[in-house]
Each structure stands twice: as structure tokens, then as C-alpha cells.
Amino acid sequence: MAVMKKLSTTATTLIVLGVTLALIVGAAAWFVLAKPKATTITAYFDRAIGIYVGSEVRVLGVEVGKVTAVTPRGPDVEVVLKVNGDIDLPEDVRALQVTPSVVPDRFIQLTPAYEGGPKLDKTATLAADRTKTPVEIDQLYESLTEVSQALGPDGMNADGTVTNLVNTAAANLDGNGRALNSTIAELSAAARTLSDSRGDIFDTVKNLQVFANTLAVHDDDVRQFNTQMQQFSSFLDDERDNMAGSIQTLSVALGDVARFVGDNKSLLESNIGGLETVTGTIANRNAELKESLALLPLAISNLINAYDASTGLLHMRLNFPDLQDPIGAGCELLNMGKLGPGIPEFEALKRQMAPLINNCHEIANQITSGVKTPMLNLPFGILSGDNLQRDPLPGSVPGEASPRFSEPSAPAGGGN
Fold first, then answer.
1. CA nearest 151: which of 139, 141, 166, 138?
2. What pLDDT score does 100 carry?
3. What angle, 0 to 180 degrees and rounded to 10, lies between the N-to-C axes of helices 198-217 and 177-196?
4. What is the dihedral of CA 164, 167, 168, 171, to 10 degrees?
5. Which structural domain range is residue 276 located in?
6. Percentage of the chain surpassing pLDDT 90?
7. What pLDDT does 382 receive?
8. Less crowded by CB within 10 Å, the N or C end of the chain?
9. How many domains does one find in the chain?
């Protein structure tokens, strides 16, 4: 019994150890397999002073990887960068050597940071045109030495030119510090004004570009216009004597007009005041004027068609629509409003006479109702009623023809 219990305890211990070992192995495998693959970048620099294996690789100043290899190749240096797999880089990334201090302990800066778009492959190469190396302090000292020698006694200042320049500048600036300060302030204000108005300046440039393009597209028209302007200028030059005489005569005429206006000021004011009534009447007859303008071309066309060139006569007949109802036309004579359209006094008379005019039309209809027959044929269409069509408007439907003008029916044939 004790042996069985001991075996059971041993088996349980082995199972627990096996499960624990499996979990450890699975976690390690997951960590290895799930971790993003690092990005390997091979960059070529013209030199790599202060860059070693283990130097930092940064993006926006934050460390994201290390330098894993530095290999001189003669004309350039091959530097291998290892970037963390969870860091995305843009396809057009560049590598820059950065010197944070005078001590040459540099790092590699990758720029720009990824903000979207195509990504750099996990294995990439940056040629020399995509890498930059800072100026070395020895080169800076060498450049300063060359400048000082060029400006020194063995160079431009051999005959005192630089000394004279410094002395002249000092003499000119002596006592002008306030004016120089004011000038710089004004230039700053002008620059600020230009900066604030940069939108308008750009719009002006764009509009000038559009104008220039328009001139280029219409180059022939512009040339023709210039030629015509040249001809016009030549014409004015040839006629300058006549134009001078005309202008002189016009000056005299304008003087006469001014004197005439001054002498007849009261009369002109009265006439201009009278024009108000005329223009008011025309405005009140706006509908009639529109109708007249619409019918005038038709009337002219009918007049042309009525002319007989062979006889030199106009084939036409007189048509007085008002004579079709002469009594009704007489009633309209009582309408005093037509004597002064738009004038308040005449409009008041029109409203007062309206009942009388309406009764007159009713009496006229009763008188003429038994006389206006289809067979009535009086001169000029007097009381002819429907026998004569009203003046048609262009495009209107023609009226019904009178039975009096219909063709007579053929007589019935008799038997033999």
C-alpha cells in the first residue's frame, strides 16, 4: 500500500514537471516566433568617424536599434544597421550621422519617421545619395584657416584693402546706430507685411500667370490689336491738325451750350419737369408698347407682301375694328381715364364713370344684337360682327370663316 502511494506521488510530480516544462518551451517558442522580424539596413557612407559596432540607431531621437557591422571598402564605408521589428520606416528613409557633442561619439539618425504610405522592406540598402555625413571639425578649422589667410597680409590685405574697408565701415557706422536700428526695424515690418499678404501676393502672381497664358494663347489677336493700335496712332498723328481745330471748335460750341443753358435755366427746368409726365405715360403703356414692337415686324412683312411690283399698287383693305361695334366705341369715349393714364385725377374720373360706361355697353349690346348678322355687309366692316376677323397675333388660331364666303353648293341634276 505504501509502495502504491509512493508511486502515485512520483507520477504526479513527473506530470507537473512535464506540464511546467511544456509551458516554458511553448512560451519560449511563442516569444521567438511571435516577435517581429528585425529590419536590416545596409547603408554606405563616405566616411564613418565615430561610428562603431554597438552605436545607437535612432528615430526622432529615440533609440530603435544598433549598428551591427562597420566595414571600410576603400571609397566608402559599409555600415549595417539592425532596427527593432516593431518599428516601421518609410520607403524613402535616409540615414544621417549625428554628432551630439565635440567628442566624436556619434549615432545614426533615420529620417523621416513613418507616418503612412509604403514601408521599407525588412532588408534594404541605402546608397551614398541617401546618407549624409557631418562636416568634421578638422575641415572646419582648415576652412577658417584658408579664409584668414585669404584676408590676411599675404592675401587681400597685402596693400591694406581689408583694413581700409573696416575703417571706412567703422567711420560710416559711427553715430548711426539709431538710424541703422530704425532701418532694420522698418525692414522687419516690411517683411512681416509681405508675409501677412503672401496669400494676396501668390494670388496676384497666379492671376498674372493666367493673364500671360491668355496673351500667349491669343498671340495672333494681340499682334493684330497692336497693329491696329499702331495704325490708329498713325491716323491720329496724320490728323492732329484737324483734331486740334475740331477740339477748338468743340470748345467754342461747349461754351455756347453753357451760355444757352445758363440763359434758359428756368425754361429747361420746366421742360425737364414736363418730361416726367411723358415718361410716366410711356411707362404706363408698357404692355401696349411691347405688343406694338411684337406686331411691327409682322406689319412690315405684310406691307411688303401686299405690294404688287408689276402694277405699283398695294393690295389691301381698310379694317377698323372699332367700327364693328360703333356704339360700344362711343361708350369708351366716356372713359376719361384714357386722357391721362397714371394721373390721379383722371384715374378718379375713370372710377366714377365706370358704372355709366358699363350701362352704356349693356344698352349698346341690346341695340346691336339684332343687327349684327352674318349676312350683314357694310363698308369698312361696320356692325359686321364675326364676318371680319379680329387682328390676329402671330401664331394665333385663325377665326371661323363667314358663311357668306363659303362656296355655293352645286345644283342638283335634273332628269331627261
1. 166
2. 79
3. 60
4. -160
5. 243-281
6. 17
7. 65
8. C
9. 3
Same domain, 250 and 339: no
Element (H, E) at 329: helix 326-332
First-to-last C-alpha distance (Å) of the chain = 159
Cell of 77: 564605408
pTM: 0.35
Identify the DSSP state of 379.
Answer: G
Indicate the residue type of 353: M
User: What is the spatial distance between Cα 107 and Cα 157, in angstroms, rounded to a whole number?
Assistant: 43
Domain membership of residue 251 (yes or no) is yes
Asked if the model's pLDDT at residue 10 lies above 90, the reply is no
Which one, of 73, 60, 71, 37, lies nearest residue 107 by Cα?
60
CB hemisphere CA count around 200 (13 angstroms): 5
Decide if pLDDT at 392 tops 50: no
Angle (CA) 210-211-214 rounded to 5° is 85
pLDDT: which is higher, 323 or 112: 112
- In the block, cell 516554458 appears at 24
Average pLDDT, the chain: 78
DSSP string, 192-210: HHHHHTHHHHHHHHHHHHH
* Residue 1, all three cell numbers: 500500500
15 versus 264: the higher-pLDDT residue is 264
How many other C-beta atoms lie within 10 A of the C-beta of residue 77?
A: 20
- Quick one: pLDDT at residue 274? 74
The region that residue 395 occupies, defined by phi over 0 for left and psi between -120 and 50 for alpha, beta otherwise, is left
Output the CA–CA distances (angstroms, integers) from residue 251 to 31, 243, 245, 247, in the order listed.
Answer: 105, 12, 10, 6
DSSP string for 57-121: EEETTEEEEEEEEEEE-SSSEEEEEEE-TT---BTT-EEEEE--SSS---EEEEESPP-SSSB--
DSSP symbol at 387:
G
Residue 168: inside a domain, yes or no? no
Q: Classify residue 10: in a domain, yes or no.
A: no
Asked if residue 117 and residue 48 are part of one domain, the reply reads yes
Q: Residues 6 or more apart from 92 whose CB is under 8 A from it?
A: 112
Q: Show Cβ contacts of residue 115 under 8 Å, excluding neighbours closer than 6 positions.
A: 90
